[in-house]
Design goal:
mainly alpha; T_SNARE_dom; membrane; transmembrane; coiled coil
Length: 245
């Protein structure tokens, strides 16, 4: 069923959206924007409407597949964060139960009339031109299809292409938002690295200045070392002469 396949595509799209939203919140540590919350609400509302429409059209053969899709959808709803502003209870969808088979009606009058009519072996036969592979030609030749069937098939193809383009557009928008967030984060790191580089340059300049002062002091000490020794010895000699006399 086309509607069931469409609902599955939308539920898978919701799963991918929630995974990217979780990565933005937990890994990049950013808060989703109002535009992201609006797109999430639109997607959940669209899925709810599709499931409601599918519930009215589903048959007993679709009950199990439909209920499995409902379980997956409810599990995704329970994982939506509070910042989205969604009221989860408003988007709940009831599961399907198998419908009771309607009893078959026996039309005695119609059956009786058919028995009374004489049998004509050529009444319901229609003759067509002979073809080697009738089934293959019928399936592949669009000219044999009625106009309304061709139009319906064309519309279905266009709808599927529109859904794929919408999905691609939303994925590109999410990637764009993530790229902008990463760009802002890199700019912050660049500012921090510039500050660190400036501090390292200041520390290097101070160390070079201190090294130059130490070298100058060492040079002066080497040049004036002999003079200081002579003065000290002279003072000691004078002191000894005074003491001995």
């Amino acid at each position: 069923m086309a509607t069931l396949r469409k609902a599955k595509i939308l539920v898978d799209q919701l799963s991918e959206t929630l995974q990217e939203r979780k990565r933005i919140i937990e890994v990049i540590r950013l808060t989703p924007s109002e535009n992201d919350n609006f797109e999430l609400r639109q997607l959940v509302d669209r899925i709810t409407r599709e499931l409601g429409s599918l519930r009215e059209q589903a048959t007993n053969n679709d009950v199990n597949e439909y209920n499995e899709l409902i379980d997956k959808y409810e599990k995704l709803l329970s994982g939506i964060d509070d910042e989205s502003g969604l009221e989860i209870s408003a988007y709940k969808v009831e599961k399907l139960t198998e419908k009771a088979d309607t009893p078959k009606e026996v039309r005695f009058e119609e059956h009786k009339q058919m028995e009374m009519q004489p049998y004509d072996p050529f009444a319901e036969q229609t003759f067509k031109p002979y073809r080697d592979d009738e089934e293959e030609v019928t399936n592949n030749d669009p000219q044999d299809m009625p106009n309304h069937q061709m139009f319906a098939q064309h519309q279905q193809t266009m709808l599927e292409q529109d859904e794929e383009l919408d999905h691609l557009h939303q994925s590109v928008q999410r990637q764009h938002s993530m790229g902008r967030a990463i760009h802002d984060e890199l700019n912050d790191h660049i500012v921090l690295l510039d500050d660190l580089e400036r501090q390292v340059d200041d520390s290097t300049f101070n160390l070079d200045r201190a090294q130059r002062r130490l070298n100058h002091f060492r040079k002066q000490a080497q040049e004036n070392g002999s003079l200081v020794t002579i003065i000290v010895l002279t003072v000691i000699l004078i002191t000894l002469l005074v003491v001995l006399n």
